[in-house]
Design brief:
By secondary structure, the protein is of the alpha+beta class. The chain has helices spanning about 35-50, 80-90, 110-125, 150-160, 185-190, and strands at about 5-10, 15-20, 25-30, 55-60, 65-70, 95-105, 130-135, 135-145, 160-165, 170-180, 195-200. It is about 30% helix and about 40% strand.
Length: about 200
């Protein structure tokens, strides 16, 4: 999986609602970049839906397949988090969080009913958003003289890199996310410029 140059995710958040025997399942799908993003989204929904019985979720982050988490939040084990993650995985998505908020309707749905409800609500939310391909990026720190700014910014733009941080003084520093498939090219271009230093940042 790590050899890929692109990954699939969703471009923006969406909400879908599924009802079964009085219970309401509100599925919120979000693109996320970090665990901090996940925690913020969950806190927001817990405030917004303070009266809801359950806030179940699953997310997958990164490309190695190891960074994921599921929560049944009080539902019977395996009936919520796993079905949610199953839908994220069946679409081959990463950097995606789905939180399903449940309002209990008074009738117990049983294990098959719950699995179906969480799975369906998640599928509905994910279907609302087009899936986008994003480049796998490597972060570089580039240090250079102010006079070289125009050339460096031009290459960053041409190769579809994204500037994440910059300090512009007499000596400048830029941190940029470089698409993995353009990395060698950019390093080569920069190595031809005098006094430019390039470091890979974790």
């Amino acid at each position: 999986m790590s050899e890929k140059d692109f990954y699939s995710t969703i471009s923006q958040s969406s909400i879908a609602e599924f009802k079964d025997r009085g219970s309401r399942f509100l599925a919120y799908a979000y693109p996320i970049e970090s665990i901090i993003d996940f925690k913020e989204r969950l806190q927001e929904l817990k405030k917004e839906h303070a009266k809801a019985v359950h806030h179940c979720f699953a997310y997958r982050l990164g490309l190695d397949g190891n960074n994921f988490r599921v929560s049944d939040d009080g539902e019977p084990s395996g009936t919520a988090g796993k079905p949610i993650l199953g839908q994220i995985d069946s679409k081959g998505l990463t950097n995606v969080l789905v939180i399903v908020v449940r309002y209990f309707g008074g009738t117990l749905l049983g294990v098959p009913g719950l699995i179906n409800a969480y799975k369906t609500a998640t599928t509905m939310a994910l279907q609302l958003m087009p899936i986008v391909q994003k480049p796998v990026t490597v972060r570089l720190q580039i240090s250079f003289d102010y006079t070289q700014m125009n050339d460096i910014m031009r290459w960053i733009k041409v190769l579809n890199c994204e500037v994440v941080e910059q300090e512009m003084q007499l000596f400048c520093m830029i941190k940029t996310d470089v698409p993995k498939n353009r990395l060698t090219e950019l390093k080569q271009l920069l190595s031809d410029m005098r006094g430019v230093e390039v470091q890979q940042v974790k």
